[in-house]
Amino acid sequence: NPKVSVMKLVPGMKEDVLEYLFSKNDAVIIESFGAGGLPTSDEYDFERVIQKANEEGKFTVIATQALLDGTELTTYEVGKKFKEEFSVMETYDMTIEAALAKMMWILGRTFERKDIETLFYTSINNDINTRGEEVL
Length: 136
Known about the structure:
By secondary structure, the chain is of the alpha/beta class.
């Protein structure tokens, strides 16, 4: 399924960019700040856009721009909220390239959220480590 896009979050970016990407795609992978942070305030309404996408059966994956770190959405309240309330997935230590190819492959086979999460978090050739262990 080629309807998967990547959005690199930059300081000052408004949620309308994400809204546009969701209008054209079934999933968006957001390269976020740090452990998986997204701006949340009256000025930045990413929460509304992600909630709407979730309600429309679309998928959000959070990655990080930090080269040597992975995501850990539960580190901060905002990430925890996105993960728990909106079923946002995270890449942990998976590269953006692997996450993109994996989501395209998965969405070419199913749109069942439970199946998508199971497949996404299944390690294929050590592409993801969800337990914080060193991968050799």
